[in-house]
Amino acid sequence: MKLEQSEKFFVSGLFNNSVKLKKAEECLVLDIIRLAGDASTRRYYRVETTRKAYVVCLDNPIPKGKKSSFMEIHQVLLENGIRIPQLYDFDPQHGYFLEEDWGDITLLQRLGQINSAEEELSLYQQCVEHMISLHQIKAERYPDSNFRHLAFDHTKLMQEVDFSLKFFCDHFLQAKLGPKEREVIRSALDNICQKLEHETRVFTHRDYHSRNIMARGSEMAIIDFQDAMMGIPQYDLVSLLDDCYYELNQDNYQHLKNFYWENSLKNSGHQESFDEFNYLYDLMAIQRTLKAIGSFSYIVTLRNDQRYIKYIGYSFEKLKRLLIKYPKFNKARKVISGLYYAN
After folding, report:
1. Mean pLDDT of the chain
2. Among the listed ranges 1-10, 118-127, 200-209, which one has the minimum average pLDDT value?
3. What distance separates the 2 farthest-apart alpha carbons in the chain?
4. End-to-end distance of the chain based on CA atoms, in angstroms?
5. Rounded to an integer, what distance in angstroms lies between the CA atom of residue 96 and that of residue 57?
6. Quick one: what percent of the chain has pLDDT higher than 90?
7. pLDDT at site 218
8. What burial class does residue 237 get, using C-beta atoms within 10 Å of its C-beta: 0-12 exposed, 13-18 middle, 19+ buried?
9. For the chain, which residues make up each domain, given as ranges?
10. Rounded distance, CA 135 to CA 112, Å?
11. Which of 54, 141, 146, 172 has the fewest C-beta atoms lying within 10 Å of its C-beta?
12. How many Å separate Cα 95 from the centre of its chain?
């Protein structure tokens, strides 16, 4: 991606200061390349040097007296042995992070090169094992951390529902969703969110999917963890197994759900049975998939990033399949399907 000279000069200056502070190896900069970003507003660059490559992330500056959520969660994950890219330097004034370069291959890209369903299962099982380690982090050890005070409670989950209805129905579909129709959908989701609110919460990544896991050889590293908060275990599991970017082989899908239950929740006392686990999984998948549709719609309509249009269609069909499993959601499904298929 071509860089403006001023942009290259700015990144180079920040990196050379890291070298001066001995946060990076003594070296000369050979090139600076803008990397394709994720759905956030953060900007990423690869700094190629005479010694090795680094990744620079530029985010919003951190005001004085405020904590960096990235730095805070990075430390928590390091202390708990979670594999994440190493952090070499941080400048809050410029929102500058200097990180280990893990290459360009995400799990999603790696999945494009698999040779069998067995290879897919092996990759995903590693990801589920990492997730279990995340969920076993003892939040009580971090009483002053922000993530302890952030949770997917009823209010937060319904805020995501309203966000999605606004950007999917009103902006992307440009559909006339009347007050009664909107209330039918909101009422169904309100029941779901009420149920989810009362379940035991664990440390959750919040966006644990195939584009936020880097693959390098047989190793994997987790990225984009700065928005971690407390949520039910199924939140991350849904993000991974019902990923809105990739459809798992169905046998692998069922195996991985069983694997998570057997190795994490079965003896935890958090959820009573495998049937209860699956029911909560479906409820979380409905809410999480609708949220993803809203996010994709926002990116397409307000940021004019057309790459995400294909994910809206795929996610909607997933949402429809989830809703049709439960007759009590028929009214909501018919309202939202009527809007979608009419456009």
Report:
1. 94
2. 1-10
3. 65
4. 35
5. 6
6. 89
7. 85
8. buried
9. 5-100, 107-341
10. 28
11. 141
12. 21
| Three-class SS state of 191 | helix
With contact defined as beta carbons under 8 Å apart, do 326 and 192 qualify?
A: no
Q: Where are the alpha helices (DSSP H) in the chain?
A: 5-20, 69-79, 107-111, 117-135, 154-164, 179-197, 233-241, 250-260, 274-302, 309-324, 330-341
Closest of 31, 92, 47, 46 to residue 67, by C-alpha: 92
Fold adopted by 5-100:
Phosphorylase Kinase; domain 1 (3.30.200)
Which residues are registered as beta bridge partners of 99? 55, 87
Note the pLDDT of residue 318.
97
Quote the CA–CA distance of 77 and 84 in Å, as a whole number: 8
Contacting residues for 5 by C-beta, under 8 A, at least 6 apart: none
**pLDDT above 90: residue 210:** yes
Q: Which CATH superfamily is domain 107-341 in?
A: Aminoglycoside phosphotransferase (APH), C-terminal lobe (3.90.1200.10)
Secondary structure of residue 220 in the 3-state scheme: strand
Please tell me the predicted confidence (pLDDT) of residue 38: 61
> How far is Cα 58 from Cα 148, in angstroms, rounded to an integer?
26
What's the chain's length in residues? 343
- Residue 22: partners with Cβ closer than 8 Å, 6 or more residues away: none
| Type of residue numbered 226 | Q
Tell me how far apart the alpha carbons of residues 219 and 129 are, in angstroms, rounded to a whole number: 13
CA–CA dist 175, 170 (Å, integer): 6
pLDDT greater than 60 at residue 252: yes
DSSP letter at 36 equals: P
Label residues 285-310 b or e (16+ Cβ within 10 Å = b).
Answer: bbbbbbbbbbbbbbbbbeeeeeebee
User: What does 42-101 look like in DSSP terms, one character per residue?
Assistant: -EEEEEEESS-EEEEEE-PPPPTTPPPHHHHHHHHHHHTT-----EEEEETTTTEEEEE-
Structure-token pair, residue 275: 């049937």
Contact criterion met (CB below 8 Å) for 235 and 288: yes
Q: Residue 59: how many CA atoms within 13 Å on its side-chain side?
A: 18
Amino acid at 202: V
- pTM to 2 decimal places: 0.93
- pLDDT (0 to 100) of residue 5: 85
